[in-house]
Design brief:
The chain is mainly beta. Helix content is about 15%, strand content about 40%. The protein contains 3 helices and 22 strands. It has a 10-stranded antiparallel sheet, with helices on one face. Strands 6, 11, 13, 16, 19, 20 and 21 form a 7-stranded mixed sheet that branches. A 5-stranded antiparallel sheet has the order 1-2-3-4-5, with no helix packed on it. A hairpin with a 2-residue loop joins strand 14 and strand 15.
Length: about 325
């Protein structure tokens, strides 16, 4: 009787454990805000948000609001425009589909600011939108950290075509930062365009293009830049901190029509500056998807590096950073 009882208890406990594992797995697929287990070691849940930790860095993602990156901190220093600083949805870092002419304005609710489902796959924090009924797109954002670097976040963006027709689309990341600092990137061959907005004042020095935010030069309207680039990076520095977004360089012929591989935008109210880059235009058949990887490098700059428009030290530091893997 004792042996039989022990066996029965063991079976009951094993069955309960198995059921908990299944329940936990199912909970991983639930909408944002649900309690999750088996999170990667670099992820912490904080209410309905998730904190991705890497060294001194913290990236916060918010599944409840478009699965967007809602904060990026080096120590206590915030690099992004956060929700608390605005009364609109124009904050944080998001994914759009390009060309914009397919959906116009405002952004597609399902993809831009409706809730995303959360799961864990291959030791990555994965956020998935619902399918947008207008475009047929579904966005999936997979977050991980570098195994060898303490200053790197890696995001894989996936766009799925759930419509019944082939669609040409490019991924488009927009990151909103404070209206100060310097933006720089390797110059391409294409002339800059501004569409229906005022142009941005860009200085080309050697093989690098520079934009210094000066609110005295921002007119009472929006300003925009659309152009191509080389080398596959876009950098921003402000108050001694550096953000570099690294991505696959796009051949000029694969840039979406009336768009740019590199785009900058600042609003008339001087509330945010957008750092934007787009991936290659891809033809997706029904049921197909594309993957696009973007790596964020975040650093506190060494005090001996000159931070100014045209600084060769700053450019060399970025190029070294991107090859030091």
């Amino acid at each position: 009787m004792v042996k039989t009882c022990k066996i029965a208890v063991f079976i009951a406990v094993a069955t309960l454990a198995a059921s908990l594992i299944v329940a936990c797995s199912k909970s991983d697929q639930q909408a944002s805000g649900a309690a999750m287990c088996h999170l990667p070691l670099f992820v912490q849940q904080q209410g309905d948000k998730y904190l991705i930790k890497q060294g001194d860095l913290t990236m916060e993602v918010n599944p409840a609001v478009g699965g967007r990156i809602s904060s990026l901190k080096h120590g206590r220093h915030e690099l992004l425009i956060t929700q608390e600083l605005t009364n609109s949805m124009l904050w944080g870092s998001i994914l759009w589909s390009s060309p914009q002419s397919e959906w116009g304005w405002p952004p597609v609710e399902v993809l831009d600011h409706k809730p995303y489902r959360v799961s864990v796959e291959d030791n990555q924090l994965v956020l998935a939108s619902e399918i947008d009924p207008k475009t047929g797109y579904q966005f999936v954002k997979s977050h991980r950290v570098s195994n060898t670097r303490s200053d790197v976040f890696v995001i894989t963006y996936s766009i799925y075509n759930h419509s019944d027709k082939a669609k040409a689309v490019a991924p488009w990341e927009l990151t909103r930062v404070p209206t100060s600092g310097i933006v720089f990137y390797p110059s391409g061959e294409r002339q800059q365009e501004s569409g229906i907005f005022y142009p941005m004042e860009i200085q080309k020095i050697g093989d690098i293009s520079w934009f210094l935010y000066d609110d005295k030069k921002i007119r009472d309207d929006h300003h925009k830049l659309m152009t191509d680039s080389r080398e596959g990076w876009l950098a921003y520095t402000d108050r001694g901190y550096l953000l570099v977004k690294e991505f696959a360089d796009v051949p000029a012929e694969l840039i979406a029509l009336n768009e740019g591989e590199i785009e900058l935008f600042t609003d008339a109210h001087k509330t945010y500056l957008e750092l934007q880059q787009q991936g290659s235009m891809t033809m997706l058949q029904p049921g197909e998807h594309l993957d696009w990887e973007v790596t964020w490098h975040v650093k506190k700059l060494p005090s001996d590096i000159s931070v100014s428009v045209g600084s060769e030290e700053l450019v060399n530091y970025v190029r070294y950073l991107l090859t030091d893997h």
